[in-house]
Design goal:
This protein has helices at 2-6, 9-31, 38-63, 71-88, 94-119, 123-142, 154-158, 174-192, 198-204, 206-211, 216-242, 253-263, 275-294, 303-333; strands spanning 163-167, 170-173. It is globular, with a radius of gyration of 20 Å. By secondary structure, the chain is mainly α. A hairpin with a 2-residue loop joins β1 and β2. A two-stranded antiparallel ribbon has the order 1-2. It has a domain at 36-251. InterPro entries: ABC_transp_permease.
């Protein structure tokens, strides 16, 4: 009991998340033949790599006590427009392609941020509207045409199967390294870069943050710009992974990103969370998603329902655990 009362809520969340991930893997290993194989590892890791950057951006927004429901639509717009640019300019350098995607996403995120931060409109209302607006823009812009692998440069088509490094016989793809880099850089910034700590301050207590001299609207605007930029990075990875891009690209990724963030221990009330938790949350969500696809017992139509259930369960457990820890610590001080 002493260890429980001394452990931080974040540590306990990460421990519980690690146990849940291990239990999930062991369960499906008994249900799916050949589950513990390099092929399944590559399938899950490559899928997680697509949702991970957008989850990182979503986490930053939620830390400020907001939410971004338009992340999936931004991902789709970026993936489609990047496909058009690269099909017309196949010699474009990969780094420039990534920067273009992130810049385009940041521009879309800035639209959300300006309205929310300076117009003082609730984020759930604004991003619900831009979710539809960005998707409608994509429908009109595409003119019902599909981006296919046949018109994309060969380096992009080959990117999903390109290995960065092999560890213990497992191949780590380049796309996975890009996603992990987003997590690492953001995690280090939130830990050691003082201006980045303002996301926590604004989400924890907006009034106190303003009294401390923090420009809260600017911090919120920055959070949404970063959310858009990371959605843009996910858009690039989505384009590389699937190649064939239609107007429904990225549909549902707002739910997956929120699930990964909340399951990963980022409080929906803002002010707390870590990138390690987001990484583990994204890995758990995608492990379940991909495993259910292979497991014929459960219909694929129940996958979204399961994500919704995970979100509700995570929020409920987080609330109850925080209350219980508060009681235990209060009792320990008496």
């Amino acid at each position: 009991m002493t260890l429980l009362t001394r452990a931080s809520p974040q540590t306990l969340r990460l421990l519980a998340l690690g146990l849940a991930l291990l239990a999930t893997i062991l369960f499906f290993a008994t249900q799916i033949e050949g589950y513990l194989s390099p092929r399944m590892f590559n399938r899950i890791s490559s899928s997680t790599a697509v949702v991970l950057p957008v989850a990182v951006g979503q986490a930053i927004v939620i830390m400020t006590r907001n939410i971004d429901l338009s992340a999936g639509s931004m991902l789709g717009v970026v993936a489609y427009m990047a496909g058009q640019i690269l099909s017309a300019n196949p010699d474009l350098h990969p780094i420039l392609a990534v920067l273009f995607c992130m810049a385009l996403g940041a521009g879309l995120g800035a639209i959300n941020g300006l309205i929310i931060a300076f117009g003082r409109v609730p984020s759930i209302i604004v991003t619900l509207g831009t979710l539809a607006l960005f998707r409608s823009f994509l429908v009109e812009w595409s003119d019902a045409k599909t981006i296919t692998t046949a018109i994309l440069p060969q380096w992009l088509v080959d990117l999903p199967s390109a290995n960065a490094v092999s560890i213990g016989g497992l191949d780590i793809r380049v796309t996975v390294v890009l996603a992990l880099a987003a997590v690492l850089v953001t995690g280090l910034a939130l830990t050691f870069y003082r201006p980045a700590r303002r996301f926590y301050a604004v989400g924890s207590n907006p009034d106190a943050a303003v009294m401390a001299g923090i420009n809260a609207p600017r911090v919120v605007l920055t959070a949404f710009i970063l959310s858009g930029a990371f959605a843009g990075l996910s858009g690039f990875l989505f384009l590389a992974k699937f190649g064939n891009i239609t107007v429904v690209a990225g549909l549902g990724y707002e739910l997956k990103s929120i699930a990964a963030v909340v399951v990963g221990g980022v409080s929906i009330m803002g002010g707390s969370g870590s990138m390690i938790g987001v990484l583990m949350g994204a890995l758990l969500v995608d492990t379940i998603d991909n495993s259910l696809t292979r497991w014929a017992v459960v219909s694929e139509f129940w996958r979204d329902a399961l994500l919704g259930g995970l979100i509700m369960a995570a929020v409920t457990v987080d609330t109850l655990a925080s209350r219980q820890l508060a009681r235990l610590r209060k009792g320990g001080t008496q």
